[in-house]
Amino acid sequence: MRRFRLCFIGFGNVGRALARLLAAKSAELRDNYGIEWEITGVATRRMGWRASDEAIDVSALLAGTEQTQTHTGINEWLAYAKPDVVFETTSLSPENGQPAIEYLRASLQSGAHTFTANKAPIVYAYDELNQIAITQGKRFLFESTVLDSAPVFSLFRETLPAVKIRGFSGVFNSTTNIILETMEAGRSFAEGVKSAQELGVAETDPSHDVDGWDSVMKVCAIARVVLKTPLLPIHVRREGIRGLDHRVLQAARAEGKPFKLFARATVNADGSVTASVRPEQIATTDPLGNVRGTSLAIHFELDTIPGLTIVSHRPNLQSTAYGLLADFINAVSPTDQQSGKY
Ligand SMILES: NC(=O)c1ccc[n+]([C@@H]2O[C@H](COP(=O)([O-])OP(=O)(O)OC[C@H]3O[C@@H](n4cnc5c(N)ncnc54)[C@H](OP(=O)(O)O)[C@@H]3O)[C@@H](O)[C@H]2O)c1
């Protein structure tokens, strides 16, 4: 049995869902993976840097009644909380990935396995962060950044050796799916935003989704890690969904080719990557044409497999939290071969 000290940077929707999931799966982690855990630090913009040298009560933390000592900044906080594992789930900053990159760098340098749900640090600092993790003998993983928790990065890392990727396409953003479908039903853009907010998928300010930034960041993160190409948001042709009229959307749906905010990346003959995120009409007979509502999907074209599609049907916050939990378990567990299971 190993006991891990866990710390959270960011404790909003995803961080809280992860705390609940850890609590729900405690017995399974202990019995099947030999993992015991306790939370020793939580930091958010409003809470500040809270840490304890004893386990923080999870129910009190979730209820907002927990009172632990506040520290002045991340280094003092890390020194006091002494995490074995840090989960980083702060808000997306598409322009430069900060301050999340600084948080991840400090966490890895302190010797903690570090996992994030935040795409921007992958886009702007993957090489550096990964190198620190390797130097420290720790893992830096981020499976929940793209399709909530459906395997994308681990698929290529662990399962598909020596494959050449010719390109990928996908429907990466559920807020825009819901807005477009609401407008196809004859209602307004604002009503679509409201529906997405009621479902808990859109933020109060949905611009990152609506203007395509969220999807662009996902394209760049996949390109960086899976295609090994340092694609930046400025390199991606981007067009959001604000220019679409409900009559155009209704006609496209009637034609059997509804609009989606569609992401594409193609590997060119010289190895460079051309990428776009823009509204495109996708036939309902296409593997991605029926990705509706909160569902998300990616389709890869590979030299050895002409088409490989991964669809995450109606993922929710627990799915995103599960991506982080899976990263944690995978990072600290011996492989089946090492543990003699096969
Ligand atoms: N929600 C999803 O379904 C989903 C899915 C995949 C990936 N993600 C990614 O996961 C991350 C978290 O999403 P969320 O939905 O949990 O967001 P959220 O509910 O807005 O929570 C964000 C958390 O980050 C904290 N925070 C923001 N800026 C900070 C800073 N400078 N220093 C310290 N803490 C800071 C916030 O603190 P305060 O509350 O005190 O302001 C809050 O606790 C984002 O990067 C998002 O893109 C989300």
CATH architecture of the largest domain: 3-Layer(aba) Sandwich
Q: Span between N and C termini?
A: 21 Å
Using the coordinates above, name the CATH class of the largest domain: Alpha Beta
User: In percent terms, what proportion of residues is strand?
Assistant: 15-25%
Mean pLDDT level: 95
Helix share, percent: 25-40%
Task: Return Rg in Å.
Answer: 21 Å
Shape descriptor reads: globular
CATH topology of the largest domain: Rossmann fold
Reading side by side through the largest sheet, how are the strands ordered?
4-3-2-1-5-6-7
Structural class: alpha/beta
According to DSSP, the number of beta strands is 13
In this entry the ligands are: NADP nicotinamide-adenine-dinucleotide phosphate
Number of helices: 14
Number of domains: 2
Poorly predicted parts: none
CATH superfamily of the largest domain: NAD(P)-binding Rossmann-like Domain
What does this structure look like?
The chain is of the alpha/beta class. It has 14 helices and 13 strands. A seven-stranded mixed sheet has the order 4-3-2-1-5-6-7, sandwiched between helices. Strands 9-11-10-8-12-13 form a six-stranded mixed sheet. Helix 9 packs across helix 13. It is globular, with a radius of gyration of 21 Å. The structure holds NADP nicotinamide-adenine-dinucleotide phosphate.
